[in-house]
Design a protein that fits this description.
195 residues, alpha/beta, Rossmann fold, five-stranded parallel β-sheet, 8 helices, 43% helix
């Protein structure tokens, strides 16, 4: 059987909107687990206390990241707030081998890069947001990060929200259960679509 090219489902949105939580919950669902592969990003940022190496991110130092970048290891990579983030090509290959579609949870810059540069592939973009800026700022302030970093993330979020119009789908994360259903419905529809 000939392996078809995987669709790449890009999930983006500012820090604090619940992207990671949504994806973790979705992968408990049989249809999603059987039909999609999720990439795990590489990053040079510091690991937060609750995060696990190889599950939340692959945490690497800047020198190793740049070495991998030079070897064309990444499908896409971006620098965000002094740290590098990248998606390994390996996950695309894995999705193709398993005849699954690939879900990448990346920042807006990475999402726009894939949409604009991988014209030969089918890219579906989904933007996750929150009801209003006040909710977003409140969530960011609850994070265990330095105030300086929170302010920078809020400033970045304002820029990222301007890209909503460039995405195929928008989910406002009012309620986690409803958002999981909406995101699941999009994934099912895109997986079953013929082209």
């Amino acid at each position: 059987m000939k392996m078809s090219k995987p669709k790449i489902i890009v999930i983006s949105g500012p820090s604090g909107v619940g992207k990671t939580t949504l994806l973790k919950r979705l992968f408990f669902k049989k249809f999603v687990k059987n039909n999609f592969t999720r990439s795990i990003s590489y990053t040079t940022r510091q690991k937060r206390p609750q995060e696990k190496q190889g599950i939340d991110y692959f945490f690497v130092n800047k020198k190793d990241f740049i070495r991998l970048k030079k070897k064309r290891f990444f499908l896409e990579y971006q620098k965000v707030l002094d740290n590098y983030y990248g998606t390994a090509r390996y996950f695309y290959t894995l999705a193709k081998q398993k005849n699954k579609d690939l879900i990448v949870c990346i920042d807006v810059k990475g999402g726009m890069y894939l949409k604009n540069n991988l014209k030969r592939d089918k890219i579906i973009t989904i933007f996750i947001s929150v009801p209003n800026k006040e909710v977003l700022y409140h969530r960011l302030r609850k994070r265990l990060e330095a105030k300086f970093n929170i302010k920078r993330r809020i400033k970045l979020a304002k820029k990222e929200l301007q890209f909503i119009k460039d995405y195929d789908y928008l989910i406002i994360n009012y309620d986690l259960s409803d958002s999981i259903k909406l995101l699941g419905s999009i994934l099912i529809a895109e997986r079953l679509r013929k082209n």
